[in-house]
Amino acid sequence: MALSRAAWGYVDMSDIASNELLEPFERLLAAASPLAQVRALEADAPVSDLWTALNESGFVDAMVSEDQGGAGLSLADAGPLVQALGRQLVPVPFAQTMVARALLAAAGAKRPEGSIVFVSPTSIGTGYQQRAVPQALVADYALVDLGERTVLTSLSDATVTAIGVHASQAADVYWQTSPRALATIATPQGGLRPIAAVLRAAEIAGAADQLLGMTIAYAGERVQFGKPIGKQQAIQQQLAVMAEQTVMARMAAQLGCAHGLPPPTNVAAVAKQIASTAVTTIATTAHAVHGAIGISEEYDLQLFVRRLHEWRIADGTESYWAEQLGRARLRSDAATSVDFVRSELGTPR
Amino acid sequence: MFESLRLSRLPDADEALRAPIKALIAEHLRDRTIEQRARSWMGFDKDFSRQLGQAGFLGLTQPKQYGGSERGPFARYVVVEELLAAGAPVAAHWIADRQSAPLILTYGTEAQRQFYLPRICRGEIFFCIGMSEPGSGSDLASVRTRAVKNDKGWHLSGSKIWTTNAHHVDYMIALVRTSGQPTDRHAGLSQLIIDLKLPGIRIRPITDLTGDAHFAEVFFDGVQLADDALIGTEGAGWHQVTAELAFERSGPERIYSSVVLLDAWIAHLRSNARCNETAMQLTGRLTAQLATLRELSIAVTARLAAGESPVVEASLVKDLGTTLEQSIPALIADDLGSHPDEPINPDLYRSLLYVTHIAPSFSLRGGTREILRGIVARGLGLR
Q1: Residue B315 distance to chain A (closest CA, Å)
Q2: Which of the residues A280, B8, B37, B314 has the least number of beta carbons within 10 Å of its own beta carbon?
Q3: A199 and A333 share a domain?
Q4: CA dist., res. B126 & res. B120, Å (int)
Q5: Residue of B52 and B242 predicted with greater confidence
Q6: A174 plus A104 within the same structural domain
């Protein structure tokens, strides 16, 4: 005897609308940005063709409201798209641009044609700086959190310096004075960093899932001691832990996106804390299973782990967000940790 | 991978149970120490379990015709979450409510359902699970306790060990061999419901390292059972147990075992006005893990609610959950020991060491860490 599912009234938060968009989006990314293309762009080929192809698809306005010409997706709806971008290692800041355009449109500001990165700078004298902004080398604009106001500015007005790490698209971004505003909007509650952190967590989740699949496939192919290494219990146990961390990162990213735009700071903290924590185990295990081939440039593993490590650090590491969240927990008057987690960090009600 | 684990929301109707269960718990736990509350899983309190039954908080997933509330896994999730968050004594009804009742509902005859289920729902009868034997731990298929069919029913000989609360409860559901040999592995195993008051049964409590006696060894010396002791199909015991373990391995019980200690430590930080960077990072780290594991645990419950038996997913979440539970006492001990000049409530200190000592059992009960990771690896297609 089983009770009917309907009688239990369970609510699945994964959205049907986003699932309908996900498949065509994944197809688009696979065609426009195969890993060979990722390598070429890392080696300094211009990104303009890729950006044009993605831009023309219309997905860039997926989160802009329908009456402003977008698809009106919430952040929860768009989360799977951001994971797909991470999975495919798309070498332009598409997720950031998609969200930035939604923020600009919601404030009635004009949206520029190019790509946009998020910057939450530190002020240095009269200037502003943020180090190692992922994909700043290939972006056209920055959305810069200046406290109460946030400005859209052209990166051609900033000093953009490659960080000098092999094949990285990250750059230090510096403005000698206030960035020249092409548009000004009120800074979202909590600032830009929680938004950037949630997007990064979703990208980590996507790339981690792809890397897990690659690593399992390799363990099934690579033969040592007369059998695939995946038949060894020692390898199986490590891959189980890698899978667990991948699932943790994905669930945290889903939770981070679930509340819409902007995500509550504490929820963003959970998303990035967990995703950043997962990176080390995931990258370490992928390397351990692959052995020496994983250290080579020729093999694709490096494309994934280099990004995972960069994304772990970007927009706040696990300890940065843990400290923010810990202070919030101590300040709260929740009677128990379960009450706090349920009321502050649960799914929206 | 494991795409079925998706963010899900507890239905409002089930959330509505939270306020009344909180009130009942608060009333009952008023005078309990931290150390008593830290023993939640091990706290055997028949009166409290009966109160829960009378208030309708047991058998939440059981049909109304058998005394249940017909509400489904999410209702149970809410109630169990509140019980564990508060450190309420759940041991008495725990196994009957979580595993035995669903098992009897799924595999039992109509007569068995009517005999056991209403009393489980009222909190009147309690169960234990007979799995491990002296020679069978993780290798469960090697059990040697044997029931032989005779004209009166089943003749049972052998023993079970590490059986939680066998010396306190009324019935055991045991996995035994009813045909074939141990070398036949999964074939020939069956599940029997054993009335622990029958002649020929001897129960020896085993004292654990904390000084408690929460588990026991149970000897069956030619015990005569009736025909209807068999639950489900003869020879299908392994399959039934596997499905049962999906219930045991899911649910909030696999993330909250150390949460009373965590909250006592946070109260300690507050009362000492301590908000140093390391302690704040630790608080945030544990909170973030709890939040994410709670969503994963709800996601597993959603699979149960959808009528699936999420064996692999439940194993994955249990391994993650027990890892968190076990890390909590180790990390808190380091924090407290790093502040030797800070006064510590002796109750907190005793609770810390209690959880420290019992925590290794978190990744033994319900399947060891290594077994669970093996199940996950199978789910990944590696074996």
Answers
A1: 10
A2: A280
A3: yes
A4: 7
A5: B52
A6: yes
**Judgement on whether residues A180 and A233 belong to the same structural domain of the protein:** no
Residue A3 pLDDT greater than 90, yes or no:
no
Number of separate domains in chain A: 2
Partners of residue A269 in chain B, C-beta under 8 Å: 284, 288
Q: For B81, name the nearest residue in chain A, comparing CA atoms only.
A: A338
* Surface of B (42-101) touching A: CB under 8 A: 61, 63, 70-74, 81-82, 84-86
Residues of chain B contacting residue A230, judged by C-beta atoms under 8 Å apart: 382-383
Label residue B138 by pLDDT band (50, 70, 90): confident
Residue A9 C-alpha, separation from nearest chain B C-alpha, in angstroms: 6
Same domain, A180 and A282: no
Q: Which amino acid is at B59?
A: G
What pLDDT score does B100 carry?
Answer: 95
For the cut 80, the answer to whether the pLDDT of residue B375 exceeds it is: yes
Domains and CATH numbers, chain B: 12-125 (1.10.540.10), 129-236 (2.40.110.10), 250-379 (1.20.140.10)
Closest residue by Cα to residue A112 from A140, A150, A151, A91: A140
CA pair distance A281, A242, nearest whole angstrom: 7
In the predicted model, what is the mean pLDDT of residues B242-270?
87
Specify whether A152 is located in the same domain as A179.
Answer: yes
pLDDT band at A9 (very low <50, low <70, confident <90, very high): very low
**Domain end call among A186, A216, A240:** A186
Quote the CA–CA distance of A138 and A41 in Å, as a whole number.
9
Asked if pLDDT for residue B336 goes beyond 80, the answer is yes
Q: Residue A202: helix, strand or coil by DSSP?
A: helix
Between residues B177 and A47, which one has the greater pLDDT? B177
State whether residue A246 sits within 8 Å of chain B by CB.
yes
Q: Which of A240, A254, A269 sits opposite B288 (nearest CB)?
A: A269
3-state secondary structure of B90: coil
Same domain, A149 and A219: no
Give A224 to chain B, closest Cα distance, Å.
Answer: 15
The whole model's pTM is what? 0.95
Cβ pair A273:B7 closer than 8 A: no
B226 touches chain A (CB under 8 A): no
Q: Is cis: bond before A134, omega within 30 of 0?
A: no
pLDDT at A1 over 50: no
**Is the Cα dihedral B97, B322, B293, A336 positive or negative?**
positive
Average pLDDT of the residues in B267-278: 96
Supply the mean pLDDT for chain B.
Answer: 94
| CA atoms of B101 and B60, how far apart (whole Å) | 10
Interface of A with B in 10-39 (CB under 8 A): 10-14
CATH of the domain at A339: 1.20.140.10
With a cut of 60, say whether residue A10 has pLDDT above it: no
Q: Are residues A143 and A192 in contact, defined by beta-carbon separation less than 8 angstroms?
A: yes
Domain assignment present for A9? no
Residue B350's alpha-carbon distances to A90, A300, B44, B101, in angstroms, are 53, 52, 19, 35
Residue contact B320–A248, C-beta within 8 A? yes
ipTM attached to this prediction:
0.95
Q: What is the pLDDT of residues A104-161, one digit of tens each?
A: 999 999 999 999 999 999 999 999 999 999 999 999 999 999 999 999 999 999 999 9
A230 touches chain B (CB under 8 A): yes
Residue B77 neighbours by CB under 8 Å, 6+ apart: B10, B14, B251, B252, B297, B298, B301
Same domain, A176 and A217: no
Which residues of chain B from 262 to 281 reach within 8 Å of chain A, CB to CB?
262-263, 266, 269-270, 275, 277, 279-281
Q: How far apart are CA A153 and CA A143, in angstroms?
A: 6
Model confidence at B367, pLDDT cuts 50, 70, 90, reads confident
